[in-house]
Each structure stands twice: as C-alpha cells, then as structure tokens.
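To the team - FE2/S2 (inorganic) cluster complex, inputs and output below.
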Amino acid sequence: MTSVARRDYSLTGVESSRAEERGLANAQWFQADIDPVRLRELSVRQNSRPGIDLAIWVALIVASGVFAWSQRGSWWAVPGFFAYGMLVGGSTDARWHECGHGTAFRTQWLNDLVYYPASFMLAREATYWRWSHFRHHTDTIIVGRDAEIVFPRPPSIAKLAWMFTHIEGGTSMMRTTVKHALGKSDDNIDVLVPESERHRVFTEARIYVAIWLATVVWAILSRSVYPLLLIGGPTFYGAWLVLFFGVTQHAGLREDQLDHRYSTRTVLMNPIFRFLYLNMNYHVEHHMFPAVPYYNLPQLHAEIRDQLPEPMPGTIAAYKEIIHAFREQAKDPSWELPRHIPDVPGRRGPIVQGFEWAGEPNADGWVDLGPADLAPGGLQAIDINGAALLLACTEQGDFALVDRTCTHGDADLTNGTVLGCEIECPKHNGRFDLRTGEGTRRPVLTPLTTYPVRVRNARIETDLRGLTPIVTNGGGDA
Ligand code: FES
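Output:
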C-alpha cells in the first residue's frame, strides 16, 4: 500500500503561504441571496429567549450536580455525574460559541457573562479561542489558515473513536494552558492573537491553573476524587458531546473552498439535540450569516434552503456519510464526497443598497445626500468621489455617516446589523459605535472614521471637507 502524503496543517508552514498565494486567505465567500430587510429581521437579538434557554440549562447543571454529589459512594452517582459532565463539558460548547459571537443576548455584557465561565468549563482559554474562532470564520477549512480543522487528511476512523474519550485533547489543552500560565507563547498565539491582547491569554491561563490547583488541593485534603469530577473532570469525561455534535460540522467535507456549501454540513436534528447544541446543526447557515442568532437559524434555513445542498436528514445519516468519507480519504486524501450544489448565482459582495453621489457642495461646504427617509436600523451605501461611505440610521432614529469598510478585515458594513447606536460587522460580529466610530467589540481594534451629518428640511446633509478625495482631488493627507 502506498503511503499518502500529508499536508501541513500548521499556521506557519508551507500550506499557509500557499493559501495566500492562491487567494484563499481572507477572501470573498459565496453567500446565498437573501432580501436584506429579511436578513436584518433575522439578525435582531433579544434577551428573553436566550435567557429562558440559559435558565433551563443552568437549572439542569445544578440539579445534576447536586444529585451526583448527594449520591457519592453509591452507583447512582454514575448517572448523576454522566449527566453533569455531559452538560458542563459538552453542552457548554454551544453557549460558549454563541456568546463568543455575541449573538445570543441583545445586551452585550450578558454574552460576556456567559462566555468567560463557559470558556473555563471547557478548558478553553477565552482570549486565544476567541481569536482562533475569528480566523475559523475568515478562512473556514482552508489548510494552513484555519486552526480549527479537527481532522487533517488522511483521516482515521480509529482516531475519531479515540477522540471521543478526549484524553488526548483534554490533556493537550491543559498542558498548553499551563505553558501559557508560565508565560510561554507558541505559534498559534503569535499568529492569531494581536500583540495588544496577548497579556490576557497569560492572565487567563494563570486563573485557570490556580482554580485547577485549588481543586486538586481540595481533592487531596478531602481524600476524594469527587472534587475533580465537579471541576476540571468534565473537560475529559463530558467532552464526548462536543465531539458528537462538532464532528458533523465539517468532517469529511472539502478543504480550500470559498463556499461553505462544500465545506460545511447542515444536519436536521431533534429538539433535544437542538437545545443542547443551540441550533448549530444549521451550520452552513451560521457560517454564511454569523450575525443571525441561534434562535433564528431555522427561519434562515427556510429562507435560503433552495440555494443550499440538501441537509442531512439526521445525525445517524451524517455519521454514515462521515465514516464513508473517512474510509475513502484514508486511501486517497483527495477523494471528495459528491455534493449537489444548486446552480444559483448567490453573491460574493455586498447587497447593493446605495448610490454614487455626484453633486456639488452647498455654499457652506455641506452636501445634500437625499431625503432623510432611512428607517431606524437602515443602512445605505454611498460612494463619493471614490470613497466608500455608509449612511446609517440608529435604532433611536439618529443618522450617522461612516467609512464602509470594517477596520478589522475588508468586510463591507452595508451588510452589517444596526444594534442600538452600534453597527455589527457581518463577518466576525465586531462592533463600532456609529456616533464616535469607536470599536466596541473584538476583533475590532481600530476605530471607524465618522463624518458629520445633519438633517435640514427633511434632507440629510454632510460636511465632507474632511474627506480627502473631495478636498484634494484624490491626493493630500489621510
Ligand atoms: S472584518 Fe472582522 S469584524 Fe469586520
């Protein structure tokens, strides 16, 4: 049997440069065509639905934990800890994920309130994994770019089975955290986490290690393994549920495709799974439109399903497909699952909702941008002398004019979501304050340029004398 060549999946190897050369890094991806008004409706956040889901989830964890603890020394502790571990070490993943995107709750601090404890419960360093996941969304399953490719080719069914124990994965995560607690960096941190954020990685790692050590001391003093089953242990014995759902997302599908329909899988699941997994079974939809909160993904699926491949009818069918793909790819890593992709145009750029301004400034230097009829939450692209601007109306009804390109990547904010006085970028859920341009949510680190606006006689006006192309005919200061 001939040995099969293995690609370099590291972020610093030959495949990383190759992905850049092939235009696969930070590229434009296919998106299904959807009415922008409907997309905006689906991107609206609330606090009540995720609050109820969270309350049920916390109640289940407390109930299973109290039951398991009360049954110490009895066989009843086994199902008790099984349920507790599955909830803490498994179902936390979906809460971590949704709150990491900032899409679960309308109130932003509520997302963070869940995200940080959830990160600890999964032994995931909060800041590192936040940045790793931004990259996963930028370059999904692009070899050399995405640090979250779980099954490098050639895959192995034995490895898949072994992963469910999470012995290797959990140990590796804890070992990495200890290394970071000692102040040692690594390639993934250097590549993914901006320098200004790296101190957070080390601080968080120290907090995690301190809690783990305190738990070990508790276990030693009490001469009992139970404290370890409560804290830290679920990372190992409960993580099978993370794998159970997570494997269905991308395993066996194509690498290096700028179209999530080839690299990502949607699986129809039952209501219990969907509660535990927070609807992430609609994974193609999530990757295409990450601004849509989990509770609106079924509606998004209904909206765009004609443009997507047929979803897997269930979890068992998804696993059958994955095992079939693994068998074939173990022999020939270039083997691909047949995938029927509807022949629809879709789009790879912004939804066009704008116009090119070609007027002249008024006598006082302000320019007329048209009637002030943008509804609250509305966005309109305006090109002025080559400058890409965005007119926005906050949910309070105030107007703002800002640069249209996100300062984190090159995403067009025309497809963003207005939330209160902020705009959320459609690519990684970074946010800007529309009034000041200040970045209010990671991964945004650089503010957005804002321009003055006023409403006169029910028309929008702006003073563009600060805009370089207007003042200097394309030259001059930035
Ligand atoms: S491109 Fe990343 S937040 Fe906008």
